[in-house]
Amino acid sequence: MRPTKRCLDDLGLRFPPLDVPLPEAAHDLIVKAQRLPDEFASGGAERVLAIDDRVWFKVKVGEYRGAGGQVVEVPDDVPTLWWLMAGGLRRADTKEQDFYGALEAECRRAAKGASATVDSRHLLPQDIDHRRWRAEQTALGVVALQRVVRELICRSAHASGPVEATSQAQGLIAWFKSQDGETYLAIGAEGFLDPREVAVVLSAVPEMTAEDWRIEPGEVLGITPGVGQLVYSAMLPPESLAAMLDDSSGGYL
Question: Which residues, including other chains, have CB under 8 Å from residue 32's CB and lie 6 or more apart?
Answer without folding.
Answer: 59, 60, 61, 64, 66
